[in-house]
Amino acid sequence: QDKGAAYHCNLYDADIVHKIAQELLPGLASACVDNTTGGIFRSPASVAVDIRREMVDYLVTRSETFVAESMVLDDDPASDDPYDIISDFVDDFATSKRNFFSKVSAWVLSERREDRIDDFVQEMEMSGFWLLNRRESVVRTLLKNVDFKGSYHCNMKFNHPEEAEQHSLSCYFRAVTCSNEGCNATFSAGQGENHDSNCPFKILRCEQNCQDLIMRREMDRHCITVCPMKLVKCPFYSVGCTASVPNCRIDEHRLDALTTHLVHVLQLLHKEASSQDLNHRADEVIKLSSPTKLASASDARSLTYMVKEIEANLGPFELKVKPAAADDA
Questions:
Q1: What is d(CA 1, CA 3) in angstroms, rounded to the nearest whole number?
Q2: CA 220 to CA 194: how far, in whole Å?
Q3: Is the dihedral of CA 119, 120, 125, 128 positive or negative?
């Protein structure tokens, strides 16, 4: 763009502006509390107006000299994240406002100090002392000064207002609202994918591949409670089946693993029998009954009852492989 361009885009990353603006009130509260601690005639509220003005002036001045100081000192900042940079400015200002009592006592480390700061933050919020939109206005000025890479604000300039207006419709930093029902989040257009990948209101397919469509914030609860694909222990776990099965496929598993379940049950009834004999007996039980009927047994107890009835018709269980013989072999 032309160097003489007079019309700036002036759009900023909405998330970072809001995040930094949230830090200004606690910073102001810290400065006011520490500046009046131990005093009889002054309270945090009595100095808030003056200290707020000093704070804004301090932050603007620090932000204006930040890039130049970094270049002169040839010192890369520990972080190029504007949140970290401006938070350090806020902390430095709050520290500079501590009175003598705060500096020489253990007040700075006390829980009572933290409580007083929290209380004063709430007091200012309730009274509307420094509204969020005004804090965000200050932050935009600070952000423009410290974000020399243009990562968090648009530095485009235009010769005509119509060009600037047209650009604002497609600018990476234009504010958009989440389209997911129930979510009112506002963010820069360029952060849309990032927000969408984390939005708690986003509708997703079940992570366990059931047919349900679930809100992201409800996914964990769905998966461990009502999801038909939730893995559960086989109902024959107590007699030895260690399979984990989707809840909706228990019936299918009982049929597929029928022989295995029968062998586990028969082993309890005939402890001296070999694996070969148990498998042979299971085949006999299935032939005398039917796989479908046997698989309808919902657990080991009901299958054991069915097997006992069938074995009464099969006659004595004759062991073809004697335990002693098996040991000798």
A1: 6
A2: 21
A3: positive
180: left (phi over 0), alpha (psi -120 to 50) or beta: beta
Contacts of 246 (CB under 8 A, 6+ apart): 208, 228, 229, 230, 231, 232
Q: Which residues pair with 204 in a beta bridge?
A: 214
Separation of alpha carbons 99 and 34, rounded Å: 6
Distance between CA atoms of residues 301 and 327, nearest Å: 31
Q: Determine the Cα–Cα distance for residues 192 and 173; give it in Å rounded to an integer.
A: 10
Q: Taking the model in full, what pTM does it have?
A: 0.66
106 DSSP assignment: G
Q: What is the residue extent of each domain of the chain?
A: 7-168, 234-312
Each residue's pLDDT tens digit, 22-77 = 999 999 999 999 999 887 789 999 999 999 999 999 999 999 999 877 766 655 55
How many Å apart are CA 93 and CA 322, to the nearest integer?
89
Specify whether the CB–CB gap between 162 and 93 falls below 8 A: no
